[in-house]
Each structure stands twice: as C-alpha cells, then as structure tokens.
Amino acid sequence: MAAGAAKSQAPGDQLLNIGQVLARLRTDFPDLSNSKLRFLEEQGLVSPSRTTSGYRKFCMDDVERLRLILSMQRDHYLPLKVIRAYLADLDAGRAPAFPGLPDGAAAPTIIPGGKRYKKDELLREANASAALLADAVSASLIQPGESYGDDALGMLTSLVALQRCGIEPRHLRGFRTAAAREVDLIESALRPLVRRRDAASRARAAELAGDIAVNLETVRTNLVRSALGRITPEA
C-alpha cells in the first residue's frame, strides 16, 4: 500500500487514533512518541486518513506498516531513504530483497504475526541444527528466548552457510566485540544531537544512526574485499 495512496478499507475495519496506535506499538517500541509518528508521516512513510476535523485515523495496515518501519530502523539501522525505497517497491507490487539480509533469509513483513519464530520454526526456516543454534547463543551471536525475530533468522541462515565452509560460531566471537565498538562509535558521533532531548532531535539521531551504520558497513566490506584481492592460490 503506498503511503500516499488511497486505502481500500472494508466496512467495519477498526480505525485507531494516535494514542491507540502508540498503545499497540509501545510494547515493542517503548520510546515511541506522538512526535515520532508525526515525523514518519511528514517523511511520507505512512499516510493515515483524516477526519473532517483533521484528526488522524490509522487502519490496521497503517499500524503494521509502522511496525515494519520501526523494526527496520531499530533492528537493522536502516536510514529512512533506504526504508522509503523498500516500501515504494512493496507498494508497487514488486518483491524487493530486504536491505542488508543475506540471500535466503526471511525479511520483516507488514503481515501481522509473521515476524516471530518458535525454536523449531527457526531451525526449519534456516535449515539449521539445534547444536548450531546452541553454539550461536553460547557465542552471543543470537540472544536466547522463547521466540526469535527476523534478525535471529538472518544470523542463523548466515551461520549455516559459514559452517559449510568450516567457520563455526566460536570463530566469530570477535565480531560481537567489533559490533559493540561500532555502536560506541555511532553513539559518540550522535551524542551532541541526542543531548538535545527533543523529539525532532531524537528522530534525526535515529535516521543518522542508520546512515552511519550503512557507511561503516561499506567501509568494512571494502576492506575485506581489498584484503581478499591479495589472496592468491598456492602454487
């Protein structure tokens, strides 16, 4: 559904005001605010209907779209321009690859209930063994829980592929430390903006965090590729 497109709404569909939307989403996104929702609307990512008095009314499609956007920001550090392009492809009826996920991993969805996996479902979707999942948890690559999200699925799918090459989760412990250092670097860069504490600054900080993360990923990828280019087969 395009953010600015007319919505097809069946009679009797529930419409929610902004407070009700916040109540539904704050369980997963406790820092969500009115200002953040308005910011996303101003950016053209979601387009609630309006009453004759000008009040916003959100349908359930809007709520799930917001859940997807917020997940893409929080869990994948994606900037708004990347999210906007991905949603535009979805709205046009295309099936774009989810930004940043390895091939074969399931992308987050705007369909309710499609983003959590029980342990057996996770193993089946990733074609992974229980032992590999246990090793990933032990190496702090996946957080243990009763259910798992799309990040865990993407991680486990990649670990399956790496295991085929002889790379085990225990070999990747340093990646967790490196990721923590990257987060510290991003937080340091955004500290002046975050200190302002107003909603607009927090929203801007969230967008910049995604931009920085994408650029750091590009630097890391290019460094690895450059190093791999120097590897030559033994004679």
Overall description:
It is a single chain. This protein is mainly α. The protein is built from 9 helices and 2 strands. The radius of gyration is 20 Å and the shape is globular. The termini are far apart. The N terminus is likely disordered.
- Strand composition percent: under 5%
What sort of overall outline do the alpha carbons produce when their principal axes are compared? globular
CATH class of the largest domain: Mainly Alpha
Succession of helices and strands: HHEEHHHHHHH
Class computed from helices, strands and strand pairing: mainly alpha
Largest sheet: 2 strands, antiparallel
Strand order of the largest sheet: 1-2
**What value does the average pLDDT take?**
81
Any idea how many domains?
3
Poorly predicted regions are 1-12, 110-114
Distance between the termini: 57 Å
The helicity comes to 55-70%
Q: How many DSSP helices?
A: 9
CATH architecture of the largest domain: Orthogonal Bundle
Give me a quick take on this structure:
This protein is mainly α and 235 residues long. It has nine helices and two strands.
Keyword list:
two-stranded antiparallel ribbon; mainly alpha; Multidrug-efflux Transporter Regulator, Chain: A, Domain 2; 235 residues
